[in-house]
Fold:
Amino acid sequence: MSEQHEQRKVILSGMQPSGQPHIGHFSGALKNWVQLQHEFDSLFCIVDLHAITVRQEPAKLRKATLDFAAMYIACGIDPEKSTLFVQSHVPQHAELAWVLNCMTGMGECSRMTQFKDKSAQHSENVNVGLFTYPILMASDILIYNADLVPVGADQKQHLELTRNLAERFNHHYSPTFTVPEPYISDVGGKIMSLQEPTKKMSKSDPNEKATIFLRDGDAEIRNKIKRAVTDSGTRIVMDEAGSPGIANLMTLYHLTTGMSFAEIEASFASTSGYAPFKEAVADAVATFVAPIRERFLEIRNNEEELKNILKRGAEHARDRARKTLRKVYKKTGFVEL
Ligand code: TYM
Structure:
């Protein structure tokens, strides 16, 4: 990486390789990553260490990790511009997490909404990793001194903890970490389930009809959108509280066509009933996803090249992470030889 590259502000973000990437991942995160990578020194990881906070089958985890990497590229992440790597390939994340663990209160972790949700969802396996999950996430971010973290709205609370930990360390020792800002889109930062539009679209939803996966075929996408749960109204207007299903479909239409909400409302003002609108959304989403799916298959079929990209990314990330960790260890009082 050139000197000039190093001087730019830093962004870091990541996704858990469990299940499959869906349109919520794209809207909340990937879309912004792709835009920001031209301006920022960008690092994007696949957070496999985080994924094992819930039980994973090893073969599936291995496959999903490569699937997510291929999907990042299929969505527009350019490995020549951005550093693309797998979290477990950079052991310094886990090492910094230990130091941060020792600076985090139990209460801070138990307040996390994602911890509460996931421990309810996986009540048979409420492990310590699930509890300290956000500290590892803070470590992912702070180890690169990221200025900005582009994520979906559900990650805001984790970012607040990250900021607190950075400030705490800086205050307790001396200025070390950049205090990062979240970057969350006003529109599309939280795509909702197609079946329960007051709930977030999620890769782990047992009802597959609730989620548009980026690898879904045309027919699947059209079916899912036509069957999306809406209310008994007839008008296409943006009203998240009163008509969350239509608001979600309008958000997907905006995402896939670029039309503003006012333009969408105007163009459907004279249609009655939701069917023509759903038809249009189905077309727009299917047309949008098709080239992503095709690029994904092409990239995923060349596993050797994909692994080479990840290898280069890990080497670069490790060089940077090592420098931060060395500073942290020194300030913490560990002996350097
Ligand atoms: P994860 O794997 O659940 O999701 C990856 C990214 O996608 C966003 N997202 C959504 N955005 C809008 N609507 C949705 N329905 C939707 N579902 C998911 C998430 O907000 C996220 O940005 N803890 C993180 C992973 C992580 C991370 C990090 C992120 C680990 N270390 C460091 C940033 C920086 C997570 O579980 O995301």
In short: The first helix runs from residue 3 to 7. The domain at 208-296 is CATH 1.10.240.10 (Tyrosyl-Transfer RNA Synthetase). The chain has two domains: 5-188+303-332, 208-296.
